From TrEMBL:
SUPFAM superfamilies: S-adenosyl-L-methionine-dependent methyltransferases
Annotated coiled-coil segments of the chain: none
CDD domains: AdoMet_MTases
InterPro entries in the record: SAM-dependent_MTases_sf
Source organism of the structure: Streptomyces parvulus
Protein name stated in the entry: SAM-dependent methyltransferase
Keyword annotations from UniProtKB, A to Z: Methyltransferase, Transferase
A single GO molecular function term of this UniProt record: methyltransferase activity
Signal peptide: none
């Protein structure tokens, strides 16, 4: 769900309309990314992430999962190729001074452990360090099962990353849970409806039960357990909910097929049933994760 930050196109003129990439990256890191904190915490607890862990985070985005692992004593390296703006935020988060900044509830201060962090712009191979031991944990926390073609992209990413890990290393994949368990499904269907002319070009699709297992097997990994985690999406109001969801990139194809105003209007309408009397927006969701092993 890490945002794919692209240039939006007007359906009326055919010309590119640049997105404010920095503002969008901030919306992701300040509003949306924290919705996945329960997922990160559940994985780190299950795998006993701590001082002996060398973690490689694929598609690390603005680095919240890296920060949480570092706060447990892990040595962390994050790689990403899609958004320099997000990587800038990740570097700011992982500086020692950033430990004083407020983080989402449940995230412990990173303290001095952030000195063992690296954030690299590039493919997984860019994280290679011949002088360091192999990675003992690889994470791909961006949930698949929401965009056409996202599983194939993840398979290629894993194939490039596993040579950097030792035999038996845990590789964690994440995905959306069953649509009937995810209240946000009804909102994401707006993206599919509006992007229909571009179906197959980044439009949203419902998650399938075996998405994660199929990706792991095609990447040559051995599945070794899975879990489900409640990750409710909660927002202060409809406006912040819209900003958070737009920051994921899941509505980019819809914006390109129509226009930002139309997407904003239909997104607000779809969010209305999830608005509580105090104005906040609340959508219970379930996410899945799979632990696989490097053979």
């Amino acid at each position: 769900m890490t945002p794919t930050l692209v240039r939006q196109h007007s359906s009326h003129t055919g010309t590119a309309s640049p997105v404010d990439l920095r503002a969008r990256a901030r919306d992701w890191s300040e509003i949306q990314e924290r919705m996945l904190v329960p997922l990160y915490e559940a994985v780190f607890e299950r795998l006993d992430v701590g001082g002996g862990t060398r973690m490689l985070g694929l598609g690390c985005g603005s680095g919240l999962a890296l920060l949480m692992a570092a706060s447990r004593g892990a040595s962390v390296t994050g790689v990403d190729t899609r958004s320099p703006e997000l990587l800038d935020l990740a570097r700011q988060r992982l500086l020692p001074a950033a430990a004083e900044a407020p983080e989402p509830a449940g995230v412990r201060p990173a303290a001095a452990h952030v000195r063992t962090a690296r954030v690299v712009e590039g493919p997984p191979a860019a994280a290679a360090d011949p002088s360091a031991p192999a990675f003992t944990l690889v994470t791909a926390f961006e949930p698949i099962g929401c965009l056409d073609g996202d599983s194939e992209g993840l398979r290629e990413l894993l194939a490039a990353a596993t040579p950097l890990a030792g035999r038996g290393t845990a590789v964690v994949l994440a995905g959306w849970g069953p649509p009937e368990r995810c209240a946000t499904t009804s909102v994401l269907r707006v993206a599919t409806k509006l992007a229909d002319p571009l179906r197959g070009a980044g439009s949203w699709r419902p998650a399938l039960r075996d998405d994660l297992e199929e990706v792991a097997q095609r990447a040559g990994l051995r599945p070794d357990g899975s879990g489900r985690v409640a990750c409710p999406f909660g927002y202060a109001d409809v406006e912040s909910a819209a900003r958070g969801l737009l920051s994921t990139g899941l509505f980019d194809a819809a914006i390109a097929a129509t226009d930002p105003e139309q997407v904003d209007k239909e997104l607000a309408e779809a969010l209305h049933p999830h608005r509580r009397p105090d104005g906040t927006v609340w959508m219970p969701n379930v996410f899945r994760y799979l632990v696989a092993r490097v053979p």
